[in-house]
Structures are given as C-alpha cells and as structure tokens.
Amino acid sequence: MKAAPTSSTPGQNVTLTATVSPSTAGGTVTFLDGATSIGTASLNAGTANFSVSNLSTGGHSLTASYGGDTNDAPSTSPAVTETVGQSLTTTSLKAVAASSSPGQSVMLTATVSPSTATGTVTFLDGSTTLGSAGLTAGTASISISTLSTGNHSLTASYGGDANDAPSVSPSVAESVGLLTTTTTLTAAPNPSAAGQKVTLTATVSPGNPTGTVSFFDGANLLGSSSLAAAVATFSTSTLSAGSHSLTATYSGDANNATSTSAAVTESVTGGTGSTTPNPVSVSPASGSGSSQVMVFTFNDSSGWQDLGVVNVLINNVLDGRNACYLAYSRSAGVLYLVADDGGTLSTGLVLGGAGSVSNSQCIVTGSASAAAGSGNTLTVALNIIFTAGFGGNKVMYLAAGNVAGGNSGWQALGVWQAPFTPAGTIAVVSLTQARSAAASGTAQTFTAALTDSQGAGDFGVVNLLVNNFIDGRQACYLAYVASTNSLLLVDDGGDAGGPFAGGVVLNGVAATIQNSQCSVNRVGSSAAKSGNTLTLMLNITFKSPFAGNRIVWVAGRDAAGGNNTGWQSMGTTTVE
To answer: Which of 89, 131, 192, 419 could disulfide-pair with 167, CB 3.0 to 4.6 Å?
Structure first.
C-alpha cells in the first residue's frame, strides 16, 4: 500500500492506494488505521483507492486488507506510516490607540489564522506578560492602562492547540507620552506689605503628580517646594513695595509633563517700616441711646488695603471681658464680636447682609452696617444695639493693625451713654466738649453738669480725671470741693487724699495750678449751682508730655458720702 503524501496536516486529504496481485483479483480492500477501519474500496484492475482527511495529529500505522474472492485468498499489506503534524498558524496584533498617555486605556487585539484555532493568546510588553485572553472566532482582546511613559514593543503569542501550531505576532510599537498638566497659582494675602510673609500655593492637575514646583517673581527664582497630594507651597517675605508678576513652574516627572501657571499680580505696599496704622475718629463722638449707627474711621498712609484688622472696644474700662468688643477683618471682609470671656470670636458677619452677631452687651446687625475703603482711609459703619444690662457711660476705644503686624495700640476717641437708672440720687448729666483735639499748650474749656435730687447744695465733691485709664497717677486729676468752692489738682503721685499740686478758690482773679500733665487757670473756670444742678467749668491747658488720646471721666458724691455716681466716661480729648 502507498499513502500520498506521507506527511500531512489535520484536515489535509491523504490518498491511500492498495495494489493486489494478481491484478485479476476482485472484491474489496479495507483500509485501517491500526485496528480501526477507516474505509473500503473496490479493486479495479488490481488497485483500490481511498482518500481520508480526518486523521488526527500524530503518527498513524496504515494498512490495506484484501478480503479475497472465490479464486484469490485474502492478504494484508505491510504498514505504511502517515505523520499528521499541526497546522501552521499566523498571529497579528493591533493596538488602539497607537499613541497614549500614562493611565490611558489601550485595547490590544490579536487575530489568529486559521480562525478555527482555539486556545489562548498571551500579550507581552517585551518579555513582560501584560495579560491573556481566550480566542473567539480567531480573535482575542485585552485592555491595559498600566504602560509607563516611553516606547513599548508589544507582541501577541498564540499558544496553539491540538491541531494548530503556536505562533507569535510581529511586534507593534506603542508610544506612551507624558500626561499634559495644568498648574494654578494663588498668593495670600494679596495685597500685602513690604516685609510681610506671602504664601504661594501651586496646584498641579490632573492625577497625583510628583516632583517639584519652582516659584518665580518675573524671571527671578524665589524658591522651590516638593509636591504633596498635588500641592506645593512656598512662603516669602522678601517682596519689595510695588507690583510683582508671580508664576509657578512644575518640573514634571516620569509620567507628567511640565507646566507653568498663569501670572498672579501681587501688590505690595510700603509695609510698616515707615508707616503705622491709626484710628482717626468715631462719629458721633458722644451721645446716648440704646442703639446707634456708629461710624469708625481708620487710616494707613500705605493705603487702606494695608490695614489688616481694626478693633472697636466699648466698655467703661479698657477690658475686653463683658464688653462690646468688635474686630473687623479687612482682608476677610467680615466682622467678629468677641464673647463675654474676652477671647472667643463669633462667626464672621458680612456687613450689609441680613445676619447679626451678639453677646451679653450688644448686638450688631449686618443691615445698616457697611465698610468702605478709599485712598488711605477705611470707614466701618456698624449698627449697634446695646442690651438693657449694659447701661451707663462707656468709652469707645479704637485700634488699628496693618497686614504686616503694625498696631496703633488702643486709642480712646469717643464716649457713649447707654440708658440706665442711676443707683443713687446724684447723676453726671453731660460734658462739653465731649470730643476735642488741640495742640499741647492750648487752653480748652470743659463744662461738666451734674444733678442731685436733694438740690445742688447737697454736693460734696465733684472729680474730673483725664488719663488713658482710671488712674490718678501721671494724670490731670481735679477735685472740686463744693463746701469751700475750691478746686484742687492732685499731684503726679495720683493720691486723691493729697498731696496736691495746688488749689484755688473759684470765681476769683487770675491764678494757676499745675502738675506735669496740665495746668488750670482760675480765669475761665467757675462753679454754678441752680436748683438741682451743679455746673463746673474748667479752663485746662494740657502739656506736651501728656500727648495722645485721653478719656475724660467725671464723678460726683454728696456731702455725706452716701451717694456716689462712680466714674463716668463723658468725653475724649487728643493732646497733639
């Protein structure tokens, strides 16, 4: 028997030819694969042919068995070896997209021919396995997003099956470029003052980039900082007065491209080296009532935007506890009210809005309140309502701080009397002038009016104290003794019981009493009694060492000492 071809592939047609001698033999020939019959054919002139195409992969021992006829005996051929090998396959690979960025999904699709092939395809980046997938109708696909930046040589390796030989695709180049980034920059505070710390914050997106950010003032490098959670910060206090164009440049990393922020303009004022913020005025400077829109004015020669926080403290003494203590943040644009403890801040109140803040002493409403800046001046108008328990004479202290930390200190610039019922029969009614300002050495007249329900003749002593605090030391501290119509000036030691710097009987000829802070001229000074009212007029000249803002307190008691008004803040004066 002969087989042609003797080496084949699965599905290939193999022709088996049996030759029986003598050629006159008739009948049929059975073809066998080992002991298994694979078909039969009739003899014709001594030969029988049979074709088979379903031989499995591997080696086969094929024989032809002649069954004989009436004249010819059966016979079997020697075995013929048929080798059936695996079918050759081809594998191709396609990557979409062919150019990508880090983290982007890339679809890899392998196509194996013939399409009847089964099994799996393994996808590789060089020698590194990326993943595998089973064939369906000749194709297999996976999606990957882990390719690093750079060029990659990708292949697909088909593992073969019982009938199909393995094959590897030609390599496909995949280019993974750097991810495009965006850098944004903020600067705070803005504006700032020369010498003030300015914090620059750069944010790089998208993703979670690494590396460093460099901060520039124009072309000048200010410094660098590493990214943490896509944010880098840098602080500087070296910016000079003027306008600065600030930028941030991200260095990039293995996966992320460099980027530079848009410029941020930082306006730097002169700072505190040559200027100091100052409170200017309170309007009204004096008055009474349970509510009032009060206008507080502050100044900074570097511009109103150089002011940081301005404060208002309304109390009978310079103490933030149990006071109407307010702080307006110019940079944040909100007002805070300090709680009764003198330290805890309320939530911020937007002036002009519908909200309010309150403590036990006062309420401030956003409506009818406003803040505005122009040139060097900041004006803060506050709609203040005093509570019933906060009655009495109060001093209005102001302080101004700039963004660089400069501070004016507290300045007394107004007084206010919230409604109250005096504890005794004596009351301090008024002081004229309630607000004054004059150069040192300039004579001023202050007129205090007090009442006594027992009549003006019931007065014992009336005191007038001009100082920063209720402290008779280094003050202009006067005592009017009604029984002798005399005026005493306490010396610099401040003891109300003496010694005294001098004394005069009022309503007389020219005479002067003085200490280190002030002098009082008897001319222009007087005391007058009418009904229940005592009017005390004092001609006072303040001296240059006493320069600054001062509070004027007035107190009165009866002759028996049974009724006393206590110190009442009735006015303020500035010694220039």
So the answer is: 89
Backbone Cα Rg of the chain:
53
CA distance 65 to 44: 15
CB of 550 closer than 8 Å to CB of 573: yes
Quick one: 494 exposed, middle or buried, by C-beta within 10 A (0-12, 13-18, 19+)?
Answer: middle
Query: Average pLDDT per run of 10 along the chain, which is 576 residues long?
Result: 91 94 94 95 95 92 94 94 92 93 92 95 96 97 92 95 93 91 94 85 92 94 94 91 92 91 88 68 94 96 89 90 95 94 94 94 95 94 94 89 87 88 78 93 96 91 93 94 93 88 89 95 94 95 93 89 84 92
Q: Report whether 444 contacts 541 (CB < 8 A).
A: yes
Token duo for residue 237: 């206090």
Q: Is the dihedral of CA 482, 486, 489, 493 positive or negative?
A: negative
Residue 138 region by backbone torsions, left for phi larger than 0, else alpha for psi between -120 and 50, else beta: left
From the list 415, 460, 392, 428, the residue with the least C-alpha distance to 533 is 428
Alpha carbon 91 to its chain centroid, in Å, reads 56
Q: Classify residue 230 by its DSSP letter.
A: T
pTM above 0.85, yes or no: no
Q: What are the strands, taking DSSP E only, across 349-419?
A: 356-358, 362-374, 377-386, 392-402, 411-418
